[in-house]
């Protein structure tokens, strides 16, 4: 699957492959350290940049705020 931004797709694929390998080869065998942390940070930074550029981050924040306000009523 592609990423929200084509520029992030390569990072997403690299992270997905790393995570899947780590999950099967390490996590399921009781090893908790994650060798994919740096890839995740890079991919996350790319996604956050895209969300800001498309002003999606603001929409998410407003939705959360509105949802929180509605729960208090």
TrEMBL record:
Family label: Belongs to the TRIAP1/MDM35 family.
Top-level taxon of origin: Eukaryota
GO molecular function: phosphatidic acid transfer activity
Record key words, sorted: Disulfide bond
GO BP: any one term: phospholipid translocation
Species for this entry: Anaeromyces robustus
Protein's name according to its UniProt entry: Mitochondrial distribution and morphology protein Mdm35
A GO CC term assigned to this protein in UniProt: cytosol
